[in-house]
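Reminder: ligand-aware prediction takes two inputs, not one.
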Amino acid sequence: MDHQGRQARLRNELGRSRLDGLLVTHLPNIRYLCGFSGSSGALLISEGKSVFFTDGRYTTQAKAEVQGARVVIRRKAAALAAAEWMKANRTSLGGKRPGRLGIEAQHLTVAACNQLAQALASNFRLREAPPLVESARMVKDAEEIERVRAAVLLGAGLFDCALKAIRPGAKEVEVAAEMEYQARRAGADQMSFETIIASGERSALPHGRASDAPIPATGFVVCDFGVILAGYCSDMTRTVHVGRPPNEARRIYEAVREAQQAAVAAVRPGVSVGEVDGVARKLFQYNKLGRYFTHSTGHGVGLEIHEAPRVAAGQTETLCPGMVITIEPGVYIPGKWGVRIEDMVVVTEQGCEALTPTSKELIAIA
Ligand code: ZN
Ligand code: ZN
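Here is what comes back for the chain with zinc ion:
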C-alpha cells in the first residue's frame, strides 16, 4: 500500500486547510495512512514529519506495520502521548506559536478533547479539521480495489451456506452462525457487521439482526452480510422466499430488483450520488411503493463498512473512478414483509462494474 504517498498528499491538504498539523485518532484513518492495524494509537502528521504513538502492547506490531512514520511508545493514552510530545518538540512543528492542530472532532470524545487542550496548554490551538482523510479514502487505488474484490467474493460465497441453512423452523441465528463459521474458515478477519437474517414479519425491519426466531413456513428472508478480509469490507443483501411466493410478493420483489438495477445502471463518473438515489426512489414512487423505501440507496465501503460517500437524497458528492459504493434499495411493509437487494459496485472510467457476482433472480426455498 502506498502509505507514504497518502501522507504526502495529506500534507499538501494541511496547508490549504490552514493547519500546522493533524492529529489522526480514527483507527481506520490511521490504518489508511500508515498501515497500523491495532486498536490503540494516534498519528501526528505535520508539515515536516509523521509520528505514530501507541502503547507497550503494540511495540512489536507497530514496528512491523507502521510505514512512513516514526514510532513512539508511551505508557498512556496515545492522543495524550502525542500532545506531550508536541509540547516538547514544538519548534520542530513549524515553531509558530500557538500552532493550529487539526483534530478529528467526529471521532474524539469531549473528555479526550478537553484533555488534549489541557496538555497542549498555550502552545497549540485545537481546530476541527475537515474530513481530509475520509475524502481521500473515497477513491480507492488498484491495490485497494483488489482487496475489496477478494472480500466481496469471499462474502458472496457465504450466501450458499445461507441457502443450505434456511428452512422452516431453523432459527435465524443458526443460519447466521453457519455463515460466520464458514467466513472464519475461509480466512475472513471477522464479519463486517452483525449478520442480518430477518424472516417473516421481521423482514420488514431494515436492520433485523439474526434473532432466536424460527423461520416461518412461508415468507421472505432478508440476508444482509459481509466480511472483512485483509482490512477491507464486503456488504451484500439477498432476499429469498420460503415456500411458494404469492403474486404480491413477486410483484414487490421485482419492483425492488428493477429499482436496484436501474440505480446500478445510473452509476458513472460525473453523476452525483443524489441522482443515483433519485433513480431508485422515482421507480418506487412510480410503482406506488415510495413510502416503503425508508433508507438511503447506498454508501461507500472500504476499510469501514459505512464510509463516504452516502448515496442519499440531497447528497451532492460526484462519482469518480475508483469509488466503491453499495446500491441497496428496499421495500418494507411493517407487520408484513420486506425485500432488499444489495450489490457493491466500483466506479470505472465508463460507468461501473458490479463486484457482487450473485444472481438476483427470486429464489424460492421449498
Ligand atoms: Zn448490507
Ligand atoms: Zn450496505
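DSSP finds ten helices and 20 strands in the chain. The first helix runs from residue 3 to 16. We will return to this case in the review session.
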